[in-house]
Amino acid sequence: MTVVKTSMRNFLAHKGRMALSAVAVLLSVAFVCGTLVFTDTMNTTFDKLFAATSADVTVSPKAAEDDDQGPRTGRPEALPASLVQQVTKADGVKSAEGAVVSMSVTVVDAANKKMGSDNGAPTIAGNWTRNDLKSMDITSGHAPRGPTDVMVDADTAEKHGLQLGDALRTIAVTGDIESRISGIASFKMTNPGATVVYFDTATAQRKLLGRPDAFTNISVTAEEGVADTRLKQHVATALDGAAGGPYKLQTAKEAADSGREDVGSFLDVMKYAMLGFAGIAFLVGIFLIVNTFSMLVTQRTREIGLMRAIGSSRGQVNRGVLVEALLLGVVGSILGVGAGVGLAVGLMQLMGSMGMELSTKDLTVAWTTPVVGLALGIVVTVVAAYIPARRAGKVSPMAALRDAGTPADGRAGWIRASIGLVLTGSGALLLYLTTQADQASEGSLLLGGGVVLTLIGFIVVGPLLAGVVVRAISAVLLRMFGPVGRMAERNALRNPRRTGATGAALMIGLALVACLSVVGSSMVASATQELDKSVGADFIIQSGPSGPIVPKAEKALRAAPDIEHVTSYKMIKAELTAPDGKKETEELVAADPTYAQDLRRETVAGELAAAYGKNAMSVGSDYAERHGVEVGDTMTVAFTGGESAKLKIAAITSDESNVDKGAMYTNVTTAAQYLPADRVPPNMIMFAKAVDGKEKAAYAGLKKALADYPQFTVQDQTDFKQGLKDEVGQLLNIVYGLLALAIIVAVLGVVNTLALSVVERTREIGLMRAIGLSRRQLRRMIRMESVVIALFGALLGLGLGMGWGTTAQKLLALEGLGVLEIPWTTILTVFVGSAFVGLFAALVPAFRAGRMNVLNAIATE
Amino acid sequence: MTTAMTIPRHGGTGGRTAVAARARQLVKAYGSGETRVVALDHVDVDINRGQFTAIMGPSGSGKSTLMHCLAGLDTVTSGEIHLDETEITKLKDKKLTQLRRDRIGFIFQAFNLLPTLNALENITLPMDIAGRKPDAAWLNRVVETVGLADRLRHRPTQLSGGQQQRVAVARALAARPEIIFGDEPTGNLDSRAGAEVLDFLRKSVDELGQTIVMVTHDPVAASYADRVLYLADGRIVDEMFSPTADQVLDRMKDFDARGRTS
């Protein structure tokens, strides 16, 4: 009991010194809990949405299952309207209603402004049914009644200032639907961001499906007292052997579950990525906690010696420190759980500003969240304090008698050196082997091992490196500051273990930043090089997330002036039978013959141009080798939804390529022969070439042609490359943002080390002030020390990270990342930035040191 | 006093007076109301240039406070202190720090040296801080005088307690301050090491013309001084010139006895 009491008193007495450690625990726990609460809330939101929108039983075409992002045709799979009658006759059915839903649409206002979001939330068009009344209320106007009526969801209306009577154009593959807003409907629960428009059933069938006698699914409502699973059985019986079958039947629960699965897998990726970053922050926090307790134990050496002298056992001293750590962990974690909920609310608002609406009404704190947060926070803190606690236990009773004014230099021993060198060395070896690997899977294991080993190795040898690196940095930087600089250098060097651990904490975050920046810019450089090498087209026209390029837009593009040619590019699914009899389902690229100029491909046999001849095609070299295909062979190609064709192999393309690797080409007209007209998919992407010397005019012409279709973009090569760079840059920025947490904790670590050092050196500071060191000089000395520690961490981190990044690039060269580019601007910015971080970290400690009363400082024991 | 006049000095105002520092009506009080404690009670004192002055007194007599105030380490409640011709009680921290750096030397009882610097670096520290080059000839003479020539590259932890205090003495002397303050500089040393340090202090007064003020409670230490001031209850109650240890001890006993009977 006395142990606990003493620990409690110590904890309270030194709460100031523990504050930053508590903040570190708090931040890490908050990030974990925030992530959990946030993703749970998203799940709740989607659960509620899916539960409300699903009918008791939904009947949909089986084929819809295969298409993950909507069919390539841009038209939803449909079932015959007559099926509704059949379903209605089944036992237990109260009512059955045909529904039309298409997600391959874009809605624009009168000014051709897109109404949908750009960040993954779908735009959904459909017919207004009774089932929709379960999840929506019409808040103004009326439901769509005629071919020119459209009803829009209230969130979209509000976001874009839409009012009754405003014109909306809905663009589908089957054509545009021009209509005026007849009503606005509000979701009864949170709609995270989907844009929804409703038409009357006839309009929806005709315009979205292109045929008046079909639906995309049937919503079945059960009679009172009939369970959904029961109803499903009845409907299945009624539909047994029905035309166009078999069909997919889902109960409300199954539909909600499958909807959640889709969203859930995305949410899971996000959750685990964020938890990963929280883990890094925890790792960094460990250094801070170890440093804090080491310093507290050192400062308390005499006190501990006295305890030992009057009869405390080693175990008691040891446990005493651990109990303090436990208290720290508990306090930090409890605050962290609270802060985590706050963080989740903040994240929800952030998402709101980016167009993903979440409501705090759905805020979900599962009971596991605080449990996980507390357990993690406490366990990490206590484990981190274990080494300092053991050291405390080893303090001899003689320490009470010794004058332990300043702690002895914790010299890093040769054991540490050799362990560290062995680890670093074997890590480096693994990294070297990674660069020699010829298979990505084996290489990534080596890379992972190498990264972990070199990281641990660097952490272990950190204190030794601190000596060398700090001297080197000081030689360059601090010498110009004369004696103040020299004292700062000596202070940074006096306890290498402390400096090493503080720097290592910063090293971790910065190493990841450096590594990712190297990989990111290598990605951009490699892609740019590849584009320069192989793309002959001047312009690239891309479809949006809402489906392929609609025929009307294609027509407009083809009519643009100053264009030499426009190339179609369609993906068509087919089952191939190779000459060896093996069957494989593949996606063929059906393109215009000009595609051979737009994308230059090497061939290992035949001429690529010949593949666009009548009833001809090409295959990739890998496929050719696997199936023993040669030029001149004939393949059986069974187009999905169409006829079977015999196509002659006219060329074999080399698979030593990063663009269109393994693609099989055939002419659009060839494919069209074997497919019904509504099965020929629109273009996924298109290419265009300008008439020589008219590039500018052509670019402007193409842009103008797409003015009515804001969902498609046309870019020339320069803009395309820039777009690629921006995309990678954005991704990197998100990752840097998440790494910022680990870096903040590391900076807190620098502040912590300095603050505790200042306390520890009170007498020294007093002495220096007494013999004439001015406040300004004192503050400068502490700032210098901080800068040196920060630069030490930065140098190690950037060096290590560039090594990792370079290795990763060598490995990814197998996957097409052929060019290594080290982003020196980023690296230098981070390095210089670290110096400023050092200055910033020293602000408070330097201020406090400057304010110390000289006399009290001298008198301090 | 003639030797003092021949020693070139840094700082000061040029007009040399026989008094290096003087305090007038010096009051230092802590707290207020009922808990008010007066550490210095209207003290008037002159510290003579080129003399070794010892301040003695029982614990709580105010001797350390007096020294701290004279040295510009502590603020005063009222009264004036002149260092040469500079009135220091009104100075701001910045000026005061400069004054300590350029015109005053310190020797504390313990923890005099920075553990990260070697002996030589510790000695030249005040000048380094000021950005001044130490006068090499003078530095050599000081180092010779305190007998540290072969220990200059050692870190404080590699030096004995006596050696450490000698380094502190050398540091105080090296910058040629107008006045050196010692706060029980031999308090932590055994009698032999203490005697060595005191010898050097004596020598620096005799040979280098240094002014020294030393707080001590050791009669033997006080016997090295030219003049001993006795403090009790924040007042100067007596003084003695060219004392011996026995005389000092006797006087101390008198005070003790008086203190007990009164």
TrEMBL record, chain A:
Lineage top rank: taxon: Bacteria
Pfam entry (one): MacB_PCD
Domain MacB-like periplasmic core stretches: 19-235, 502-681
Main location: membrane
Bilayer-spanning residue ranges: 272-298, 319-345, 365-387, 414-433, 445-478, 499-519, 734-759, 784-804, 824-847
Limits of the ABC3 transporter permease C-terminal domain: 277-397, 738-853
Coiled-coil parts of chain: none
Localization of this protein: Cell membrane
Keyword Nucleotide-binding among UniProt keywords: no
Membrane topology: Multi-pass membrane protein
Region (Disordered): 60-81
Keyword line: Cell membrane, Membrane, Transmembrane, Transmembrane helix
Family to which this protein belongs: Belongs to the ABC-4 integral membrane protein family.
Protein name: Membrane protein
Source species of the chain: Streptomyces chryseus
TrEMBL record, chain B:
One annotated GO molecular function: ATP binding
SUPFAM superfamilies membership: P-loop containing nucleoside triphosphate hydrolases (SSF52540)
CDD domains listed in its UniProt record: ABC_MJ0796_LolCDE_FtsE
Name of this chain's protein: ABC transporter ATP-binding protein
Keywords assigned: ATP-binding, Nucleotide-binding, Transport
Domain ABC transporter: 21-261
UniProt keyword annotation of Acetylation present: no
UniProt xrefs under InterPro entries: AAA+_ATPase (IPR003593), ABC_transporter-like_ATP-bd (IPR003439), ABC_transporter-like_CS (IPR017871), ABC_transpr_LolD-like (IPR015854), MacB-like_ATP-bd (IPR017911), P-loop_NTPase (IPR027417)
Organism: Streptomyces chryseus
